[in-house]
Specification:
This protein is mainly α. The protein has one domain (2-112). The protein contains two helices and no strands. Helix 1 runs antiparallel to helix 2. It starts with a helix and ends with a helix.
Length: 113
Amino acid sequence: METKTTILDPLLERAEIYGKTSIELIKLQALEKTTQIASHIYSRFIALFVFSMFFIMISIGAAIWLGNFLGKIYYGFLCVSGFYFILGGVIYFLMHNWIKKHVGNSIITLMLK
């Protein structure tokens, strides 16, 4: 009976080591995937922030220029905000499904990469 337990002990030890190694590998793979997704989102956020600041400055400049052209500064701001309102409505009604699909596909691609 002792020979059977002696033969099984190394096998059980190897199975235990294999299980621990597999769990550690899964943890490291999950950490890598999380890091990739977080860095991707962070870099996109920084780019979006810089683009937004540029866009805000251009909008203010256009509003002041248009206001001077129309005679009162606030007319320029009203025209620019009206333009953005119309543009937002067009994007929402015409491109909402496309944007939703594109963002969903991007997330899936990042998860499976």
